[in-house]
Write a structure and sequence with these properties.
Layout: H1 6-9, H2 12-22, E1 29-35, E2 41-46, E3 60-62, H3 65-76, H4 79-89, H5 91-114, H6 137-147, H7 153-162, H8 173-184
Antiparallel strand pairs: 1-2, 2-3
Helix pairs in contact: 4-5, 6-7
Length: 185
């Protein structure tokens, strides 16, 4: 399989926005997983193997720095421990989280098959601690955005806790406008 050029499937404005959000060039983008209400990407769907050959289990990668900052605050406030305790004591929640894990794996497997990638290093491993732990709220929220609410109950809870992170404006629109203005001059 040859390295896929993200520019072939994603427009340059999206690539520029993602690079501005991440502070680096994006790697292994398959598609835009979700768009923020501001219209910019906030989740990218990534290949399970990066162009340099590294296995990459995070299929749904959050890119919006406003959302990721708020999620980091939730993590530092102990939300993951509380969620993990609930998983251990609530069989219905644990079963729904198991289904989220299976959905994550199915999505990554479909991408790998379509891209003709073999990634045995991450077989059976989803991300974010699924199906029994909670290690990364960014992953859970990314899955809920990319696959839709109702797929990952804990990801849905993270999104509810975030509120409208976009309400005070786009995370990188000013940077993109400045860059476009420099090109026009």
């Amino acid at each position: 399989m040859t390295e896929q050029d993200p520019a072939a499937t994603i427009d340059q404005r999206d690539i520029d926005a993602i690079a501005a959000q991440l502070g680096r060039l994006p790697r292994g983008i398959r598609e835009i997983g979700h768009r923020c209400p501001c219209s910019l990407p906030d989740v990218v769907t990534t290949e399970p193997r990066l162009p340099d050959g590294t296995p990459f289990p995070t299929t749904f990668y959050m890119t919006c720095p406003k959302a990721t900052g708020r999620i980091s605050t939730l993590e530092s406030n102990g939300v993951m421990k509380e969620m993990e305790a609930r998983l251990a004591s609530d069989p219905e929640l644990a079963a729904a989280y198991q289904r989220a894990h299976e959905s994550y794996l199915a999505a990554r497997t479909a991408i790998a098959e379509e891209a003709e990638l073999d990634v045995p290093e991450i077989a059976g491993i989803s991300a974010g601690g699924m199906p029994t732990r909670v290690k990364c709220l960014h992953v859970l929220a990314g899955q809920s955005l990319a696959q839709g609410r109702g797929v990952n109950p804990l990801g849905d809870e993270v999104l509810a806790a975030l509120g409208e992170w976009w309400a005070d404006g786009s995370c990188v629109a000013d940077q993109l406008a400045d860059a476009e203005h420099e090109v026009d001059q």
